[in-house]
């Protein structure tokens, strides 16, 4: 038995009520409108409450003290006959059955950011927590603790955090007031990552803040990977909850190959159950990545097209217009394939290519992702191109090469760019190249999925396109960032008396369609971890499958000391990527007139 308390205290009881979290009742009292999609048996393990901020809102409504369950989706309005029910709170005896954590007043969530003095904590985690607070998405009783070795007082932590809260909502109404309220709930404890005594002190402070309520604890490991296990051990043995849930968000990298990843998982599992481990891949929290399933599974028009019958190739493209400045030490040990391809791009590929899951339940989705990952063909070294950026001077400005970074060895061969051709050997995708391209210090910043469809057979209009049939190919682009958009390239007639054809975009540009700002990926993921929603976190078998795919080719590249193709900082990357694509009769969609 591991040292932590029940992984999901709120859901482990056989009581029909047991699936509810305290946030549920908090939101119910707030009379948030809900809506119905299907009936659900409340004994079902799928029934759980998720707050108004969740994408899936399975909600349990109390009707005259009895339990009536409805599973609801976010955008539907609450049917008239159910209006008002959401304000009904359970009678006392039901509260007993639910367990005390379901009582709003009696439960609390403590979030400890381990490594609070670091870059990620400042840049992403605290701003995301504040945004959730601002949006009223955090539970009523919560406390945030920063934990790191640096000496800091609570006031100093607040000061540090306040300087980072120039986030997306800083221009909003009452932001200063909200910020002040938020900061009052942030505290700091200084300690070593491998000291059980220091975590015991943290535990004492957490308890004080919990004030006798049921304690639910979330630890966010925002520290270098070599100290993950120490920190988990100490948190587990000295600071886990005794009567609520304890969960740990683990940042990447989860190892650097199959062996080290398996070793990390097995070390973590000495102290945690799999259900307690939330392996974060922040790309899964990005709006357009989340939207991929909606696009696929709620639009009939795409369903028949989504296979080798109509899709010629799929491209997954990541580029950044800056180098590894400041993170060279970390990066040199990993390289772009481990940093971006093995996780972010592969996760997108899995969501793109998986079969329809049985339901939107986390396990059903993750089962499908694992299946597709396990159907992938081993990557051949000939299907990989690696590059590294070199210094470049443009317009009087000079940009450093990768090895100019003092933390990077001068003779480093670590790729800062890679392109690869991958294949899925199953009935749906047989023979379709999935091309990936990822690079740092390129000419622009973008992340997108491009789907190029087949040519129209016997196209009546072929002669109007000239010899380049690719120009007439339909293409679906899901632009993850920047300027989130989904657009489809179609062919149309240029208005006029002649018959000239043009290629145009049917464009769903998010900023034109929606005035609401898009939340940062970390907001979605933090909220999900608090609510115990695992859909967007990586399960250990997914991780194994991802490493099994990339480890052999990574080893081969390293053993053969493959020399990267050097490309100038700010360029479009190595030409080798074009030869690779051409081998599969593909042109990268982000190059040229149609990008
Ligand atoms: N920064 C980013 O953009 C991203 C980061 N990540 C991952 O998130 C995690 C945190 O990243 P980031 O904040 O950049 O990391 P940092 O290097 O900033 O480290 C975070 C904190 O950990 C402590 N620390 C740093 N090095 C050591 C060490 N050798 N031994 C013990 N403690 C150390 C420091 O706190 P103190 O000295 O006060 O104890 C530091 O403030 C890492 O796993 C990283 O790979 C993932 C995606 C993006
Ligand atoms: O995980 C990582 O992601 C960032 C890119 O994230 P984004 O949300 O800004 O697109 C990348 O810069 C970093 O190298 C990598 O570790």
Could you explain how this protein is built, in words?
Belongs to the glucose-6-phosphate dehydrogenase family. One of its GO terms (biological process) is glucose metabolic process. Its EC number is 1.1.1.49. This is Glucose-6-phosphate 1-dehydrogenase. Residues 113-291 form the Glucose-6-phosphate dehydrogenase NAD-binding domain. With 595 residues, the chain is of the alpha/beta class. Helix content is 31%, strand content 22%. It has helices at 22-29, 92-98, 119-134, 154-164, 175-183, 196-210, 228-239, 258-268, 287-297, 328-353, 362-374, 462-465, 510-513, 521-531, 540-559, 576-583; strands at residues 38-39, 56-63, 66-73, 107-114, 142-148, 186-190, 214-221, 246-250, 277-280, 311-319, 384-390, 392-394, 397-399, 417-422, 434-439, 446-453, 475-481, 485-493, 501-509, 537-538, 565-568. The strands form 4 sheets. Strands 19-18-17-16-10-15-14-11-21 form a 9-stranded mixed sheet, sandwiched between helices. It has a 7-stranded mixed sheet with strand order 6-5-4-7-8-9-20, with helices on both faces. Helix 3 crosses helix 14, helix 6 crosses helix 7 (228-239) and helix 10 crosses helix 15. The structure holds NADPH dihydro-nicotinamide-adenine-dinucleotide phosphate and the ligand O=C1O[C@H](COP(=O)(O)O)[C@@H](O)[C@H](O)[C@H]1O. The ligand O=C1O[C@H](COP(=O)(O)O)[C@@H](O)[C@H](O)[C@H]1O binds at residues 282, 320, 339, 447.
